[in-house]
Amino acid sequence: MRRTRTQLLYRDNTIAIEFNQMEEWLYVNWRGYQNYDSVVTGCERILRFMKDTACYRILNDNTHVEGQWSAALRWLAEEWFPEMEKQGLKLFAWVYSPSVLSRLSADKTVKLADYPSYIQAFEDIEPAKDWLRSHL
């Protein structure tokens, strides 16, 4: 079993961001209902911490997200993902929420972003971790 050394970078009631030094990824744990403001604020923090830690692999966990957040998907696809890529993003493992509406929002975001090769969606977190580990 792998030992992990993580550092909590930020936490509020909608998101927690950790730097996993052993695995060399940022772990982003979204929680609850999201809206445009919470998504934009959280994503701006991810971008900042990606640059601050020089860690360009993201484990984006939506397991605990409720409902849809479609108001933010155009911003994500047209502004945030291109900026993340410009700043060095290498891999983005996106773990779906069990909420059908949240999953639809995630799928629409990826489709609007024209299916970038660095994004891979997963049903569960363990395959997402395995994918990131296989691309060191």
Question: What can you see in these coordinates?
Answer:
By secondary structure, the protein is of the alpha/beta class. The protein has one domain: STAS domain (Transcription Regulator spoIIAA). Helices cover 40% and strands 29% of the residues. It contains four helices and six strands. A six-stranded mixed β-sheet has the order 1-2-3-4-5-6, with helices on both faces. α1 (36-53) runs parallel beside α2 (73-86) and α2 (73-86) crosses α3. It is globular.
Search tags:
4 helices; alpha/beta; 29% strand; 136 residues; Transcription Regulator spoIIAA; six-stranded mixed β-sheet
Shape by Cα distribution: globular
Please report which band the strand proportion falls in: under 5%, 5-15%, 15-25%, 25-35%, 35-45% or over 45%: 25-35%
* CATH topology term: Transcription Regulator spoIIAA
SS-based class: alpha/beta
- What would you say the CATH architecture is? 2-Layer Sandwich
Name the CATH class: Alpha Beta
Point out poorly predicted stretches.
Answer: none
Please tally the β strands and state the result: 6
Termini distance?
18 Å
Number of helices: 4
Name of the CATH superfamily: STAS domain
Mean pLDDT: 93
Q: Outline the biggest β-sheet.
A: 6 strands, mixed
Give the strand order, joined by hyphens, for the main sheet.
1-2-3-4-5-6
Query: What's the alpha carbon Rg, rounded to whole Å?
Result: 14 Å
Tell me roughly what share of residues is in helical segments.
Answer: 25-40%
The secondary-structure element order is EEEHEHEHEH
Overall domain count = 1
Organism: Pontibacter mucosus
Protein name: SpoIIAA-like protein
